[in-house]
Every structure is written in structure tokens, then in C-alpha cells.
Amino acid sequence: MKIAVMQFPGTNCEFETLVAVKAVGMDGEYFRWNRPAGELSGFDGFVIPGGFSYQDRVRAGAIASKEPVMSALKEEAAKGKPIIGICNGFQILVESGLLPVSGNVDMALAQNVMVSKGKIVRRGYYCDWVNLRHEAPSRRCSGSFIIERAALLKIPIAHGEGNLVTTTPGLIKKLNEEGQVVFRYCDKHGRVISEFPVNVNGSTESIAGLSNPEGNILGMMPHPERAFFAWQLPSFDPRKQRPDEPGPGRRVFESMKRYIEVNA
User: Fold this and answer.
1) Has 13 been annotated as catalytic?
2) Cα torsion 38, 43, 47, 51: sign
3) Residues sharing a CB contact under 8 Å with residue 176, sequence separation 6 or more, in sequence order
4) Residue 230: which of 215, 240, 216 has the closest Cα?
5) Structural domain spans, the chain
6) Spatial distance between the Cα atoms of 41 and 72, rounded to a whole number of angstroms
7) Would you call 127 a catalytic residue per the annotation?
8) What is 2-263's CATH topology?
9) Catalytic residue among 16, 76, 87, 186
10) 14, 76, 225, 254: which one is catalytic?
């Protein structure tokens, strides 16, 4: 089970992502943007990690999305192979038209706009631990395949452009109806609240993660690789005192593995 951890100039989360891939029993390796794109066909799945590809010039993920390797990645996705894009990886998937519907660029991950009590209280980069609610049915999406619906996960974010927006009429309604909304920001009780600090970036309907219609592609802004082990968790989390336990982010990578096993 070979996984390519994609690397573009400015990617900075490839190491811990590769650690997570290997820790769940998959065979992973870095795949740099300038490697022959045809070699992607030898992999069973792909992860596009976080970072600041090409310094986020123009828009986050915009330049990386135009690299020739992305055309090959689209071909592999069409075969049903799973792709998980994390933070900048999510931005690249949106900019390349792989999410939310293949071939169209109908959404953008815009600058964070934090709104509280109807007023903008902050803009731009923000880093914190957030609560996520799993919105999709289990087995609906490659990156949440083993996660039950309505499950809560505490995972960190670190981004400046995670505000999911669209001008396409009816698109959000369609994504909801077809089960493509995978994660939403929520409070510790699972309540979705539209304002900051629960909705950490102003994202439409508090959306934190999306899949494509087929479910083999997941894009999410939070970083599961940074909550893979219990020792990575914040000091206020009691699980940190039990470092041998898995962290909540592990379930994303375990989901990918199980998805490949079931669909091989």
C-alpha cells in the first residue's frame, strides 16, 4: 500500500505527514513536484500536506495547482484512488478543480475573517486547537471512512486562508444534500456556532472539510498529522499524560488505509 506525500516548494508539513502515513502501516514516500508525473501511477493513494506552496502568492495553492503533476494526480483520482489534502493541500485541491466537483473551480479558500457579535474582530493567520464534528456518514469519504457520523475530534489549525466561500448559486445546498460536507467547526459539545471563536475563520456554514461526489478525495483545513499521537495534544487534554495512546488525528490516516483495503 504505497502512499505519495506530495511536496511543492514551500510545503512544510511533509515530515510529520509521512510519519503518520507509516505509523498506520502504509508505505509512504515523498513525491516532489518536479519528479516525472507518470510515476504517480505506481501509488495507491496521495496526501498533499500543509505549508505555503510558492509562498501563497496570488492565492494560497493557486500556483501549485497549475503544476503538471496535478494533471497526473487528476488522472489517478479518476481511477478512484484516495487523495487527502490538508490545509495548503486543501487549497491546492480547490484551486485545481478537484474539489468540490471535478473540473470546476467553484469555490475558494479566502482570507480568514473572524466575526463575533456581528463585528469583524480579526483577520488573517490564526493558530489554535479547534473542535470538529464529522458530518458525513461513515464509509462516505476516504479520509473519514472509519469515523462515525457526529463524532467529535479536537485537531489544530494554522492558516491564514481557510474561509471557504462560493458565488455559485445553490452549491452549498447541493454539497449538504449529497453528503460532501465532511467536517464542520463546532464547540466542545458539538454545537455549530457561526461566529468566532467557534467558527475560526468565517467559513461558510462553518465548513472545515469537503469531499468530492465520489468520496475518494478529502480536503480539510485542520491538521490531523499534528494530533496523531497523544503526546502532541495540548497540555489541558488529559490524554497527553498517556503518550502511548493515539491522538484523534490518527483516525484520518487509518480511514485512508481502510478505504484502500476495501476498494482494492
Assistant:
1) no
2) negative
3) 205
4) 240
5) 2-263
6) 8
7) no
8) Rossmann fold (3.40.50)
9) 87
10) 225
